[in-house]
Amino acid sequence: MIYTFLGPEGTFTEAALLKVPGSRDAVRIPSSSVNEALDRVRRGEADAAMVPIENSVEGGVTATLDAISTGPELRIVREELVPITFVLVARPGTSLAEVKRVFTHGHAWAQCRAWAASNIPTAEYVPASSTAAGAIALLEDGSLPGDAAICGPIVADEHPELNVLAADIGDNPGAVTRFILVSRPAGLPPRTGADKTTVAVPLPEDHPGALMEILWQFASRGVNLSRIESRPTGEYLGHYFFSIDAEGHARDARVADALAGLHRISPGTRFLGSYSRADAVEPTVGPINADEAFDASRAWVSGILGD
Amino acid sequence: MIYTFLGPEGTFTEAALLKVPGSRDAVRIPSSSVNEALDRVRRGEADAAMVPIENSVEGGVTATLDAISTGPELRIVREELVPITFVLVARPGTSLAEVKRVFTHGHAWAQCRAWAASNIPTAEYVPASSTAAGAIALLEDGSLPGDAAICGPIVADEHPELNVLAADIGDNPGAVTRFILVSRPAGLPPRTGADKTTVAVPLPEDHPGALMEILWQFASRGVNLSRIESRPTGEYLGHYFFSIDAEGHARDARVADALAGLHRISPGTRFLGSYSRADAVEPTVGPINADEAFDASRAWVSGILGD
Amino acid sequence: MIYTFLGPEGTFTEAALLKVPGSRDAVRIPSSSVNEALDRVRRGEADAAMVPIENSVEGGVTATLDAISTGPELRIVREELVPITFVLVARPGTSLAEVKRVFTHGHAWAQCRAWAASNIPTAEYVPASSTAAGAIALLEDGSLPGDAAICGPIVADEHPELNVLAADIGDNPGAVTRFILVSRPAGLPPRTGADKTTVAVPLPEDHPGALMEILWQFASRGVNLSRIESRPTGEYLGHYFFSIDAEGHARDARVADALAGLHRISPGTRFLGSYSRADAVEPTVGPINADEAFDASRAWVSGILGD
Amino acid sequence: MIYTFLGPEGTFTEAALLKVPGSRDAVRIPSSSVNEALDRVRRGEADAAMVPIENSVEGGVTATLDAISTGPELRIVREELVPITFVLVARPGTSLAEVKRVFTHGHAWAQCRAWAASNIPTAEYVPASSTAAGAIALLEDGSLPGDAAICGPIVADEHPELNVLAADIGDNPGAVTRFILVSRPAGLPPRTGADKTTVAVPLPEDHPGALMEILWQFASRGVNLSRIESRPTGEYLGHYFFSIDAEGHARDARVADALAGLHRISPGTRFLGSYSRADAVEPTVGPINADEAFDASRAWVSGILGD
């Protein structure tokens, strides 16, 4: 197996990838962007890509939502949840009081803003392309005394030459990021009973009820949504598609029926995968939404039609 | 073919039956009640029964709605619309000004009430078991001077010994009654493109949204309803089933899909037939509700499931 | 107080009227039809009319539903529930085995049909204008041996010269009829916490969602419906109004808000009264549908508008 | 008037601010982040802040959506639309073929990705805190030959010492960004007939219908939505609020009624302003959603209640 992931090494994305059984012994190629990671999969240079899709603080990762919803089809085959914690690191010789500049990714900075305002109020934020890149830059020529970086603990572990000035500096202690493993379309992962299905649904028309009709396809079959995000199609302001995670597997009759309904009212609907939930929570399914109810209703109609 | 109909001879129901091709040369047995007519079909003593189901003034014929929705299954295979006009008849020697009592069926009396109030204000209403029975009773012993009857023109035509004192006395000139031809379950009548489907749907639960969920099964597939009536199940006040006529044929994908949805949320749903509309009006079906859209959505889901 | 009721004396309607406090000492005028009773109220000849509106076996009383929904406005101010039981009576000298003809109202005959089929299978049904009228006719000249009548126990009690051949002959032991007391519009009866509100709502347009929009006005405010019936407007087949009983009082904010919504989408909506429930059952109202939630939301909007 | 805006000078945000009448002669303070800009308004250091809220390619500006929806209340009083075009600049002496590094903001890089892949495929992206900052850095010590920046034309205009190597390099020619002018709560801007209302609505509960109930508050009053975005509350994955732009003004009865409904089902709903639309498009309002219909329905209910 060849994996790629949103790099560089030492990011939370690599941590997510390492939770996949067998990944430690597989080839793991860092990619410099979500698009690059997914394109590697599309071109067959990698079998699967691990990329972030959602953060409990920052929300959806728009680069991922957009990239999986356009271009050649891909499939989500797995999800991983990684708790997000941050550390402030610097080279030996720089104390917390001496920090003048903080290199990190914008999302990380956003999640440590309150801590920084209280503890290093005069420090200047310098954007880096990733948390790991910001930290590794401290070790390069050109780094100045007073430079520090916010990164994940994994980077500090791998680089003992960096001092941890402060740990657990994220403003939301329960912050978690959700990652998805994406491959080319192939057979569906097996139904486990605690599954999730992801779709991208273009809003068919701009009228007051269009989004309701989409949502009703789920609600009328008792299918809960665990995530819904609007994304611009890029064509014009107000033209959207919706990226939706629903409870259940395409092999659940209620989900398959909802998918058929979605495709009917919005034929550009894209199926992005059914896969087991990282939290293993099984949904409650009432009797009218159970497979048996769907099977019975179809058999009843077939009887009427004389099929 | 052996037909039965809600008799006696001379009623609008017989007029409806005579509109069925071939019925004039077939055996036609009058029944004394809707239940008797339907039971003759159930027992195989008749091939089909013509009974009234709906009147544009009086509403649903509850005896029919209830009788076809319970007991051994029956199927509506045809509908007929008959304009309802009334005449006032009496034996020779009784003028309009002399009318003291009016024999007729309660529904007919209700539909001529305004005319009667203006033209024979002092006349007393005497209920009869049918309009024809009321008229024929005038010819029997015991009939008194001043007795009259309200009936359909067909009865007057067949009984020239009755004088027509006034014609077209119905309060609603456009009044029409709809009749259905009912047989034992067999193959569905062919889809004509201008069809109607009738179902009886028990309200699954008494919560604010239960009826909406039923209606949504139709609305979400663009299926118009041409009639909806609540009927008590007889168990307790507030426990209903709904008798519904929907546009379209069970062989229309949108109708079949709606039927499946109904059965799922209310498993006691009873299919009462798909048959061509008497008015031959074809519904407007948008592209998302066309057979092609349903076929395409199912093919798409099958592709996802690898079926 | 002057009351009128659907007569004659001895019917279940009079029994319902006698349950109204003070009615035993008031003037009670029988009317020969629902329309006559209501017109007496409209003309000021009576202060209130008691008429049947719904039967647990036969369904809505269409004459009442139609009469209160058209013409000069009236208001329902009270409801009564009366258990319906039937007896078979005859003049002394006629035994059960000798019964040849049964005089009664069509609704009563419908509710005793199974008993009659088992116990007096050869007896002929003769329609009467009311159950009481059928029984009283037995005492008149022209009554023949073998004549019997189905009526309420109250008639037998008042006419000891009639023999009760069989009691409790109704096919549904729990049958109950609901009656309403109707007056000219005046102040609303007080809110008791266990109330009912009745409206007549013309279906604004014949499209798949019109009825849903009406129902949603109730459902979206947590207002349960205890009765819904479609009635033809009489103009043409398929043109309806809906007669609806909803839980709650017009002074409940959720009901007042629903009424405003109904009037907006169907300006012909007619308010027919708020009155206490005969069964005194109080509805469960969630916090988002309580008066406090409506008051708070209006205050919030007023604050925004700077009113 | 003192304005602040998401700086530095030369960004599209300043271009948006300069479209506000009178702003050219007012004090204009750049802020280094959306939060800083809004906090200046909250503290009274500025009267209003111009910040981006939505981009036709990149979607919602999450920093803005989150910052206006939490903390002390603010109000949107105006919107501006600015077409987004990009230029590639460098110091004299660097030609297009020689570009090795491109400094710019991540959003700008994302919008020029296809152009860059075709025209400067080997160039490395270096994140900058804004497009203007990336361009100005070229003029500082430490800039190397081969360095370039992607920025808006306004920056190139103000810095003639930078060469424009390529213009109109955005991948979406019609790209536009929407900016909002935010102030402390005060009286509402007047209703113009072509208005927009923005709200933040916490999802009250995680059940299949919760979002539908929110949307229905708009749809049932004929209020179109022009933008809807889910944002995490930050508490846990799957806990959202919805940021919504609806057509119309809080002084439109249909909008006020929808706001009341929203507040009732989600009391944490925050009103973020009603303001005239930059595109001046007036919505189509059917008769049942016009102010007159709301006024009439309330008057009708008041009449019933005897108020």
Automatic annotation (TrEMBL), chains A, B, C, D:
Pfam families: ACT, PDT. Keywords: Amino-acid biosynthesis, Aromatic amino acid biosynthesis, Lyase, Phenylalanine biosynthesis. InterPro entries: ACT-like_dom_sf, ACT_dom, Chor_mutase/pphenate_deHydtase, Preph_deHydtase, Preph_deHydtase_CS. Residues 2-184 form the Prephenate dehydratase domain. It catalyses: prephenate + H(+) = 3-phenylpyruvate + CO2 + H2O. It is an enzyme of class 4 (lyase). Pathway: Amino-acid biosynthesis; L-phenylalanine biosynthesis; phenylpyruvate from prephenate: step 1/1. Its EC number is 4.2.1.51. CDD domains: ACT_CM-PDT, PBP2_Aa-PDT_like. GO terms for molecular function: prephenate dehydratase activity. NCBIfam families: PRK11898.1. This is Prephenate dehydratase. It comes from Sinomonas terricola. The gene is pheA.
